[in-house]
Design brief:
The structure is a single chain. The chain is an alpha+beta fold and about 280 residues long. It is about 25% helix and about 20% strand. β1 and β2 form a beta hairpin. The longest helix has 21 residues.
């Protein structure tokens, strides 16, 4: 996948900054304010080529699986506003293990005759592949979303995936619905504890296939630290967390040894047990 040259990066960043600036004025109704420049991630750039921006910063990828016009099994990303898959073997934004994992899964499907899912006919088995990597721990998770209850000769697939460095958790996710939702509710463990672990600052999180977790933990920590710097909290305040993803805002306040209370204002239909576990840790 080609990378952006420096001038294109500058244009993109300027567009984003202007969009946020205009939204604050238009939606927020704020007129008199100063907006500081976008915070970059120089530590994730290639030395000497910082103008091209950071690489491999995303800790999560979800690849749709299908066939090309010649009938070959492919994976990649959907073309804009379509469900046509553009075959992508590697991505400079994603973790380095993505290509290796997808190569193993596509080879397994070819050898075992496992068909990719077809949205039109609702036939076929493998719909998506979810890959997560703990940026601070190196732990890797693979979850294969299937239109069925099992995969044939799945032990052979697990055996190959375990050769990937850091492989910690392998599972199936069952989704037989005729919709565009990627994940179903049922998880079948094939290997591992059912989660991987990673950190934001000194706070450790357990991340399941169904968990929400910031896809860019390096920048997340920088943003939280900057917000705490601006807040100038002393430890005697009560911090109100009014954001949906309550653990990701409230928990890292411990980085500054701040006492806090969390008030969740949105009632959810289902409780994520991993959120409950993270809050107890």
């Amino acid at each position: 996948m080609p990378s952006l040259v420096g001038s294109e990066m500058c244009i993109r960043d300027r567009f984003k900054q202007e969009k946020v600036f205009n939204n604050i004025r238009r939606i927020g109704g704020v007129e008199d304010f100063v907006m500081k420049p976008i915070m970059g991630m120089e530590e994730l750039c290639i030395k000497g080529h910082e103008e091209n921006g950071p690489f491999h910063y995303r800790n999560k990828a979800q690849f749709p699986v299908g066939r090309d016009k010649e009938g070959r099994i492919i994976s990649g990303f959907y073309a804009g506003r379509t469900h046509s898959i553009i075959s992508v073997n590697d991505c400079l934004l994603g973790t380095g293990v993505n290509k290796t994992v997808m190569d193993i899964i596509k080879m397994y499907m070819t050898l075992e005759g496992v068909k990719p899912y077809d949205e039109v006919t609702h036939k076929g088995v493998v719909r998506h592949v979810l890959i997560r990597e703990g940026k601070h721990t190196g732990e890797v998770m693979v979850c294969i979303i299937i239109n069925g209850d099992k995969l044939p000769q799945v032990d052979r697939l697990v055996e190959q995936l375990l050769k990937v460095s850091g492989m910690t958790d392998i599972s199936l996710n069952i989704n037989k619905e005729k919709n565009n939702v990627i994940l179903g509710d049922k998880i079948i463990k094939l290997y591992g504890p059912g989660y991987i672990e990673d950190y934001i600052g000194d706070v450790k999180f357990r991340i399941s296939p169904l968990s929400f977790f910031q896809v860019n933990p390096v920048q997340t920590e920088k943003l939280y630290s900057k917000a705490m710097e601006y807040a100038k909290l002393t430890g005697s305040e009560t911090v109100w967390d009014l954001y949906l993803s309550l653990i990701h805002i409230s928990e890292p306040t411990r980085l500054g040894m701040i006492s806090y209370a969390v008030f969740c204002l949105k009632k959810k239909k289902k409780k994520d047990t991993k959120i409950q576990q993270n809050n107890r840790k």
